[in-house]
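Q&A log
Question type: sequence-to-structure
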Amino acid sequence: MMEVARTDRSVIARWWRTVDRWMLLAILLLAGAGAILVAAASPAVADRIGLDSFHFVRRQLIFLVSAVTLMIGLSLLSPLSVRRLASIGFVGALVLLIATVVVGPDIKGATRWLLVGGFVLQPAEFIKPAFAVVAAWMLAEQGRHRDFPGMAITVGLAAFVIAILMMQPDVGMSLVIGAVWFAQVFIAGLPLILVVVLAFVGVAVAAGAYAAFPHVASRIDRFLDPSSGDSFQVEAALSAFGNGSLFGRGPGEGIVKTILPDAHSDFIFAVAGEEFGLLVSLAIIGLFAFVVLRGLLRLLGESDLFVLLACSGILAQVGLQAVINMGVNMRLLPAKGITLPFISYGGSSMLGLAIGMGVVLALTRKRAGRDPAGALRPPNDPRHSLAVTAGVVR
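Response status: OK
Response body:
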């Protein structure tokens, strides 16, 4: 990759020398693949609903440029600035999240969005990275000061956010928030007995959602028994991969985008499989795996518990979201309206993910007194990772 002179002390030069350029490249490749796939899938969707053929393409390009700019800008921040900005962002996103329940328009039986200046805003997309950072901060403070109730605060915040999401209702987003919180407290040192208890709580909550929300029960029933209801979208997406075979039918030659209403968002991975084939689909999966694993490897020698927990939470969110979306497309999981990170159409999703990965890039930059990525310190080194030497909630 391009190098800059060591004598160059400008902000951009310092950023370029310290940022994880391979992770940045992988994210940009995903975003570029998303722009191509939206261009391939969305014209048919736009024509079907009476819009200009390139309506979604133009908007996605605007979202993409804004997201990349935001991600790079956030990657310049220090850990202290990240904490401060995330705290402000969390409060703002929480207010907007509550507003969706009060004044949000009812779309397909849910109130998850706000209409802002001609754009549809989904506040839940912004609460995810902000929550991960704030929860990491609270847990890290408890690691430094045993009398600080960091664990109790994160439990309260997670429960409140999930309660608002269930009022919309948005079970899928609630699952993501709960999984991010669980990953963080587990890494922070959650005792095994509490892991088991939380696992049972998760099962109980899932059973409650099945009983309380008919649309959730319908999706699970259709997944377990396709003949029990309309499973046309999932069946069409699955058949698209078979039609694409190894190399695909070719750009613009797909059929699935002409029959699925969400081909440019929830089922865009099926469009990739049909038009570009198995090899490109595997390349997309590989890029997601690279981003998550690369981020985790950067944390192996991390001595700052806040950095460790914040990055782990955001990476868990991105990885889980990708797995759910692709699993639904391949009929491995029940249908759920969760976007494919950086690839599906959607401004809120793109900007929310850019915020999260901008934070990861900022926190994993090489800093003074920090070993290079992946360099494990010996156990007797006083700078040894806090995650190894002391659990937060033990």
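Response note: Residues 371-391 have pLDDT under 50 and may be disordered.
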